Amino acid sequence: MRYRRALIVCAVPAMALGACTGQADAGPESRTDQSEEPIELASCGYHSEITGPPERILAIKSSTAELLLALGAGDRLVGTAFLDAPLPEEYAAEAADVPEISEQNPASELVLELEPDLIVAGWESNLTDAGAGDRQMYEDLGVATWVPPSACEQAGEDHRPAPLTFEDVFAEIELMGRVLGPEAQARAEELIAEQREQLAELDEQISETAGLRAVWWSSNNQTPYVGAGEGAPQLLLDAAGLENVFDDLPERWENISWEDFAAADPDVIVLVDSEWNSAASKMEALTEEPMTSELTAVQEERYIVLPFPATEPGIRNVPGALDLHAQLAEFSDLIEQEASAP
């Protein structure tokens, strides 16, 4: 493969190929400045680093693709993979010519054909031997990798923050802005400031929903996979002023029984809508399952629907919290009853 051979001959990272003997100069359009200090990309117990803004980026999962597009790096995306849903309208045109090389984890051969100098993955499992290839393998080939710490499987230092906070999400946005260069860094700062302001405004409104209890159902129609107390579901429910019935469960999500679901008897049910497990299919399951069909929230269809990409840690968490709170307005009678309760 031409990419692999170039790396072996030059023995330097892919983004420095232009500096190798026999390679054409990258020219004035290049954003790479080899005099810059390397930036460490530490997460999930793995340490990588990158020197100078990357020029050829592969994004695996919607959360990372949308982050890169929001920071103005669409012209550096050489591919995407494993997208959870169509990109939002605001990014669709910019990404129209970016190939989606796989609907699942791409084979490492497909990845290397793109000649990336950075791979950004939304799940830790994306960059494993069972996924798109091991991070150390890419590092050995001169390709930097990054998984947001919020996407790490384990919690702890150099791994996943638990519980997740908006500041953790903002730190990831800020880091990617620095990696991408000054223009992207400015965009990151602007985006974070805007989202902090939106959260402050939301915080002034959540008193009207305080006390309402919710079950967050992410996936799996056999044994419901619900939002637990450490991840994005808890983060968004807190921001919208809702009490998570299962906030005492460790981890970010957890499987529960239908008996537990029925015993929770929530005021509202948050349904995550994805192409592989739609909100509509969850509604059908709730009405067909004898243990949940008699719940008031089911009979009165007190459903709040959120798109899957808004429920993964990333730039859509704050808009997701705003959307969640706005949908609660449809249950104004319930809110008024809660407010008037002794």
Automatic annotation (TrEMBL):
Residues 56-339 form the Fe/B12 periplasmic-binding domain. Belongs to the bacterial solute-binding protein 8 family. This is Iron complex transport system substrate-binding protein. The lineage of its organism: Bacteria, Bacillati, Actinomycetota, Actinomycetes, Micrococcales. Residues 1-26 form the signal peptide. The keyword Transport does not apply. SUPFAM superfamilies: Helical backbone' metal receptor. Keywords: Coiled coil, Signal. It comes from Bogoriella caseilytica. Residues 185-212 form a coiled coil. Pfam families: Peripla_BP_2 (PF01497).
